[in-house]
Amino acid sequence: QQPVQSPQAVILREGEDAVINCSSSKALYSVHWYRQKHGEAPVFLMILLKGGEQKGHEKISASFNEKKQQSSLYLTASQLSYSGTYFCGTELFSLGGSNYKLTFGKGTLLTVNP
Amino acid sequence: NAGVTQTPKFQVLKTGQSMTLQCAQDMNHEYMSWYRQDPGMGLRLIHYSVGAGITDQGEVPNGYNVSRSTTEDFPLRLLSAAPSQTSVYFCASKQLYGYTFGSGTRLTVV
Asked: In chain B, is it the N or the C terminus that has fewer CB atoms within a 10 Å radius of its CB?
């Protein structure tokens, strides 16, 4: 049930854009996005809920295709501070809503160079 | 608010020893989870809880026990440590929408 992320790694120059994808074979209640810097804990960026509601970061956007059970994270005009590993996490849809088990993909390592 | 507090930050165990990783949150969150993180594997769910007295297994529960006697605390017990349990362990609690993670416990089993 682990979601699949792609690509595994991305290298950018400052100011360039990137897209990170996340897909699941199961019906999703929500998709979460987190960023983790080396040696630190993951930090919540955004959540996308079934039905289209979106909550999170001001400068990073994401989409959720409920029909395909896919989500994409869009990083535009990247900054050096965007470097880190990005994880998508998914909660499956269950009777009454979420199954409350947040399962993560293996991550995408994003490196932004000057 | 201190957020999610994990102790200890580092621990070395001998094979066969038992120990408890502590996790506490002061935000009155109902949902709490334990993850382990290994290189190239992402974050894998060990156990989770939807409230005091209610726990359930995640993806990799073998060798670990949990209990949730209060809303604030969610300890993770290693029953008989094995080298395969060498990992970084994160506790997390759910806000209204996203999860807040503790700073982690780096565990080495020799």
From this structure: N
